[in-house]
Structures are given as C-alpha cells and as structure tokens.
Amino acid sequence: MRGQWSMNQEVSASRETVQDQILPAICVEAQHRLGQTLRSLYERTVDGEPIPLDQVDLLLRLRHRERELQRQR
Where are the domains positioned within the chain? Predict the structure, then answer.
C-alpha cells in the first residue's frame, strides 16, 4: 500500500512539473515549414482515400449552417 502512495505522489509531482513549464514560441518561418511538412505528409497518406461517411455528414451540416447564416445577414 505504501508503494502505491509514493507512486501516486510521483505522478502528481511530474504532472505539476510539466504544467509549470512554459514552452518557447517558434518563429513564423518555423511554423510555416512545419505546416508545409505536415501538409505534404497528410497529402501522401490520406489525400487519396475516400472521405468517411460520418465526415461527409458533418461537412454537409456545416455547409447548411453556413447558408443559413448567410441568409440571415
């Protein structure tokens, strides 16, 4: 029982340490390169596959909502 308690304390302490750390911001150029790299990876892996039906449903609902908002303006 005692071993579990100290393990829980260690996990709690490590979570606090991670939460307290402030990550450095990356420059705009690095953000752009990262975005391009992620896009190219996505295009090579997912772009050729069909869109799942549940996502098609979400896209259609989004489009209908956009049209409703445009009509209200």
Answer: 26-73
